[in-house]
Each structure stands twice: as structure tokens, then as C-alpha cells.
């Protein structure tokens, strides 16, 4: 398969936006904050990037092995009607994963014979492994299987499989019933809105076109791995993909941003492990985990300053010539956060209460040991935050 598949079939997602268009809605705020020039034309917003950022974007796409033209964009025409087609999620007896496979399979066959005897049936499937991400479709007349960009999620693959089935399985003047085991994809389509993923909006547009051609489309959720031969066949075809299978370059912008976010967090974690704070504090839950435990941004900032020892104290202010006396009036020691929380006699009664609630046995501990107890779980963190108000710190 030396040729790319797009040479045989027109792309399922014609591109309406360029690099500074399809991703513009997600990136314009960052550009504005960084001082890039924004300018408007009717119905569109553009950002004129400086060369440094333009080169950064080029490198990002090169590292992702894709180009902007491969990004799934919004439909050519807007469509936001939530009643785009019939979607059956929990309407039939067999749509219950708790049932035995034999019951699901037999009841499915009976249901199809009664409710959809004249529909052309198509089964679709999206698959993702450590090697490939693929889409597949199967009908009584033909089948397909393609590799897609590995960055795409299973959700995106499931939706793309349905889109491709609508393109390839053209049966004029015949109603279509599409079977899918992706409850999340069909639920998202059923709850279509302006904020739906672009690939869902694209699927809705394709279904809308078919409706204008007087062709009804229904989507039916079938429990996966439940013995339904249609879905089992589509699943098997999707897993047969190899390095020699036809490749399609589509990629969802949501999956790109998800990947970049994970990459950013990974880089942040690696930088922390190489920093002085790793040696000072040791391992503790990441900031995203901690932020779920705290009640508001004030507590977020408080904990961040406690961890980094940048909370306001006379000892810290004195280092920058902002306070005349760095010494504690009670203990005559440097009045920094370590002294206040660990040793100051003024707070001995409060410290005894915290130690007991945090299950700290020894009276003499180091700063990193205190943090390891305070940040072990949500309950300990809340206890720690609530008792900090009894210390004279800002």
C-alpha cells in the first residue's frame, strides 16, 4: 500500500480551517496573553504569530507526525438539532450487559427481525492497541479496515468508523441501521450541542445529509463481546490491522490537546524530580491531585507556598530587607516557616493537636516528614489547612 488512501477516496473531512483557523478557538487566548496581534474578518478570528511561535507549532506537528490539514474540523454547514436521528441506547431487553451472552445474542436477532426487517445493517468498531489505532466496518456486502493516527482516542475511532461506514456503504433509498458497542459515542451524538467534540458534530452533519436524501439512519447500541455476530465480526476486522493496512491521517484536535497536556504534566514532573525541591521535600502527590482535595484557590496558594517555603514570615522578609528583625521573639531563632511549624514554643499546644491528628509520633521531625504526613490524603490535608490559621503566617 504505497499510495495513501486519500488518493482513492476524497477525505471524509474536507478542511475548512488552516493551522491558524482550526486550532484558533483553542489557542487565541494564549496568543492574546503573550502579546500576539489578533485581527478579525467576518466570521473568523486570526492570530498573526511571531516567527518563534510559528516555528514552535511546526515542531509540535512534526513531532506528532501530522500536519494541520489532517485535523478534524467542523462541518461546512452548522447543524445543532439534537434529534438528528433515532438512537437506541437502553430501549430493548438485550441492551443489558448483565444478561448472559446467549440471551443477548438471541434477543438481538429477534429484535432485528421485528423492528428493523428492511434496514441495511452495518456494524462498526474502533480499536486501539499499543501498536495501532484502527477503524472497521462490516455489512453483508462489503467491509473495510483502516489504520488511523495513533494519537486518536478509542472514542474518536468509534465515531470515525461510523463516519467512514456512511461514506463507503452507499445503499440508495434504503434505510440504514448502524450497530456500535460504544455507548459513549452514541450518547454524545444523542446529546449533540455546540460544545460536542468536532468529530461528533461532523458525524451529525453526515447523517443530516443522508436525511436530506430521504434516507433514514438509526443507531443501535449493542453490548460488546456479547456474542452478537455483527459486532464480533467488526471487532475481529479492526484487530486484523497491520503496518500494511491502508492509513488515513485524520486526527481529532481534542486528542492532540489531551496528548500535549499529558506531555506537559510529564515534563513538569520530570523537572520537579530534577529540582532542589525534590531533595528538600521528597515525593508528594502532584498538584492536580492536591487541588482536588483543597476547597478553593486560596487554599491552593497556601499549600503551594508551604511546600516551597515561600509563605510570608519575618525570616523570609528579612532575607529581602523587608523586615528589620528575622528572629523569633520567643525562641530567638530565625523566624521562618520551618521554625514556626516545627519548633516555636509559642505554638507548642497547637502543634501537639496537629501531631495527634496527623498521627505523628515523634515530637522532633523534619519539614519533609511533616509534609509527608500532611499530604498523604485529603483528610490529613484538610486538617493541616484548618489548623494553619492558629499560626501567625500570611
From TrEMBL:
InterPro entries: RNaseH-like_sf, RNaseH_domain, RNaseH_sf. It comes from the Eukaryota. Residues 116-243 form the RNase H type-1 domain. One of its GO terms (molecular function) is RNA-DNA hybrid ribonuclease activity. This is RNase H type-1 domain-containing protein. It comes from Araneus ventricosus (Orbweaver spider). It holds the Pfam family RNase_H. The lineage of its organism: Eukaryota, Metazoa, Ecdysozoa, Arthropoda, Chelicerata.
Amino acid at each position: 500500500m504505497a499510495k495513501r488512501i486519500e488518493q482513492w477516496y476524497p477525505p471524509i473531512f474536507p478542511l475548512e480551517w488552516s493551522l491558524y483557523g482550526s486550532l484558533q478557538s483553542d489557542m487565541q487566548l494564549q496568543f492574546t496573553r503573550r502579546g500576539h496581534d489578533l485581527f478579525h474578518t467576518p466570521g473568523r478570528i486570526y492570530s498573526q504569530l511571531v516567527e518563534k511561535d510559528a516555528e514552535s507549532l511546526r515542531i509540535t506537528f512534526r513531532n506528532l507526525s501530522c500536519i494541520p490539514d489532517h485535523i478534524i474540523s467542523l462541518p461546512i454547514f452548522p447543524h445543532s438539532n439534537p434529534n438528528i436521528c433515532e438512537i437506541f441506547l437502553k430501549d430493548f431487553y438485550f441492551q443489558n450487559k448483565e444478561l448472559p451472552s446467549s440471551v443477548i445474542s438471541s434477543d438481538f436477532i429477534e429484535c432485528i427481525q421485528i423492528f428493523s426487517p428492511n434496514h441495511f445493517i452495518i456494524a462498526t468498531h474502533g480499536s486501539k492497541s499499543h501498536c495501532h489505532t484502527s477503524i472497521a466496518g462490516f455489512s453483508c456486502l462489503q467491509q473495510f479496515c483502516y489504520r488511523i493516527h495513533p494519537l486518536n482516542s478509542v472514542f474518536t475511532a468509534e465515531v470515525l468508523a461510523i463516519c467512514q461506514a456512511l461514506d463507503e456503504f452507499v445503499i440508495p433509498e434504503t434505510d440504514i441501521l448502524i450497530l456500535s458497542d460504544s455507548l459513549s459515542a452514541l450518547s454524545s451524538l444523542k446529546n449533540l450541542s455546540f460544545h460536542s467534540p468536532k468529530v461528533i458534530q461532523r458525524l451529525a452533519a453526515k447523517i443530516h445529509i443522508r436525511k436530506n436524501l430521504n434516507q433514514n439512519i438509526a443507531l443501535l447500541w449493542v453490548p460488546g463481546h456479547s456474542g452478537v455476530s455483527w459486532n464480533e465480526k467488526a471487532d475481529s476486522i479492526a484487530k486484523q490491522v497491520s503496518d500494511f493496512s491502508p492509513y488515513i491521517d485524520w486526527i481529532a484536535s481534542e486528542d492532540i490537546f489531551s496528548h500535549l497536556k499529558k506531555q506537559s504534566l510529564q515534563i513538569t514532573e520530570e523537572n520537579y524530580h530534577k529540582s532542589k525541591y525534590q531533595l528538600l521535600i521528597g515525593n508528594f502527590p502532584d498538584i492536580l491531585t492536591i487541588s482536588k482535595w483543597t476547597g478553593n484557590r486560596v487554599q491552593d496558594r497556601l499549600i503551594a507556598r508551604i511546600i516551597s517555603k515561600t509563605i510570608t514570615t519575618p525570616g523570609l522578609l528579612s532575607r529581602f530587607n523587608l523586615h528589620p528583625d528575622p528572629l523569633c521573639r520567643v525562641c530567638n531563632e530565625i523566624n521562618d516557616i520551618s521554625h514556626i511549624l516545627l519548633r516555636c514554643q509559642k505554638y507548642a499546644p497547637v502543634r501537639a493537636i496537629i501531631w495527634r491528628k496527623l498521627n505523628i509520633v515523634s515530637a522532633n521531625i523534619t519539614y519533609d516528614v511533616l509534609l509527608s504526613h500532611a499530604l498523604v490524603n485529603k483528610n490529613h490535608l484538610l486538617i493541616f489547612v484548618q489548623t494553619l490559621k492558629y499560626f501567625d503566617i500570611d
